[in-house]
Design a protein that fits this description.
Largest interface: A-B, 54 and 47 residues
Number of strands of chain B: 0
Structural class of chain B: mainly alpha
Largest sheet of chain A: none
Distance between the termini of chain A: 10 Å
Helix content of chain B: over 70%
Number of strands of chain A: 0
Radius of gyration of chain B: 22 Å
Order of helices and strands of chain A: HHHHHHHHHHHHHHH
Helix content of chain A: over 70%
Oligomer: heterodimer
Number of helices of chain B: 11
Order of helices and strands of chain B: HHHHHHHHHHH
Structural class of chain A: mainly alpha
Shape of chain A: globular
Radius of gyration of chain A: 24 Å
Strand content of chain A: under 5%
Number of helices of chain A: 15
Amino acid sequence: MTRYVVSRLWQLVLVLIGVSMVVFLTMHVLPGDVATLLLGERATAAALLKLRHQLGLDQPIWVQYFDFATGALRGDFGMSLRTNHPAITDVMDAFPVTLQLSFSALLLATMIGVPLGVIAGTRPGGTLDNVVMSMTLFGVSMPIFWLGLMLLLLFGGILDWLPIGGLMPVGMDVPRTTGMTVIDAVIAGRPDLLLISLRYLLLPAATLATIPLAMITRITRSEMLAVIGLDHVRTARAKGMPERRVVIRHVLRNALIPVVTVIGLQLGLLLSGAVLTETIFSLPGLGRLMVDSILSRDYPVVQAGALFIALVFVLVNLLVDLSYGLLDPRIRRS
Amino acid sequence: MSAPGVEIEVPVRRRSAIGKVLARWPARVGLAITLIFLVLTVAAPLVVPYDPYDQDLSSALSPPSAEHWFGADQYGRDTFSRVLYGTRTALLAVVVADGLALVLGCAMGLVAGFFGGRIDAAIMRVNDVLLAFPYLLLALIIVAALGPGLTHSMIAIGIVYTPQYARLIRGQVLAVREADYVRAARALSASRLRIMLRHVLPNSFTPIMVMATLQAGSVIVETAGLSFLGLGAQPPSSDWGALLADGQSYFLTAWWIATFPGLAIFLVVLGFNLLGDALRDHFDPRRRG
């Protein structure tokens, strides 16, 4: 196991070096250069030259990459061209919003998806199975930016049950500890704020949960089907064990291992979906920050955000892989 | 095993296979939607009641009616006509982005699988790095580098999907590299290029087509997604994502502007998914059930 972990960690380092190169190079082949961007079109040639020298842009490309990489290791990506804060600070400020959104979406998707998968998997070919499977097909075909708007229209507009965007009502704030409104409200001991922040979270989380929900339902169903025909299940039934107990103790427990992996691997989808969801619901998260920074050509923030997201993504995937080894001893040995 | 001049044909029963795939109704629905979509991309100019770019401020924001089936937007442009024209951008996205991913991915996978060793390792590490980004993030970075615009967003999506094709083809190559007909071709001193293009690639045709169909839906959604974020097709384009972004500002007062383009995306993607699922189930029985 230790050897496996070490080799995976080594691979991770290589991938991260590759990732940093991709981020560095894409920002380097940009049309127009950073100095002109900073000083504006009417800057004098001398001023441009001076700034290029200050920023190290007159150095050979490998020196520039080395500077970039060592800076990145220290979390130093330079200042945001828009806010003039360190780029990494803007990224870290936005991250809790995305984290809270993704985590609640995953929670919703798991809490609904696993039971739906069990229902469908224990009745293959039945009406309920067909209904659930059709729903998952609709789920994966739904553009979530459209679904989000439609949910807003229905629950925020026509029914007027839920707010139409943002983290909290204008002028109302939760005392900031973690940056995640729900958790901060709990820490501050304010049930009123907790309720409000949950109301604001519900629609975005439901929107973002759609695709993972469909995926989790599908995988739970197919794993249930794979396990339900095995010998130990037949034995349990032959002993006269009640069907409900057979399903929960002998089928679901064994079917859940791959499901756990799939749940973990939804993170990439969630981080991607968060970009669109945050745009629709006007949430100041990492996805929205990336898009705004790209549109306003705020490259330090784009670089910091891209590297940060890739790091989180790669780390979570590694943890999922390792947990798979822990849950299923057969993987460890192979 | 390798009698000169004997071509070893792999039996292909394409017609009956199509019949089997279409035996189930979801596949027929999927095919019908896909065909209607394809016809509309060609026939859009003949079918639309209005020019999709024609402004008519007197009917600005008018709701769906006999005159404007899907209503009109803030400039009085006919939403129905714009949605129909949007089929063209969507098809373009499939052809360019999915096509780019297919060509790049197949080339990478073929070379990696066939040459093996260091070349394989290098190509697969590049693949790993591309897979280390959540897919939309990679598209965002590429668009950031190239600049916003429809062409750039399609290139970005194409690159994002490349690793999946590369993996698929590499697996195929590894599976058939030692097959008798490839060894026979090698014994006949066929060049590596010839073996790859004449023997390995044609035999990987089915899984490639299945993947291309399944990806087509995702490609449409993601290109529209980039346009929705303002990074893809720019106004006044009638791209579905751009239409949705337009409608977002009016969705509480004029729901039709955003509703119909979204519905169009949903239907077309559903069609490709139904068709792709049916093809995959047919050609890969392990995935059934």
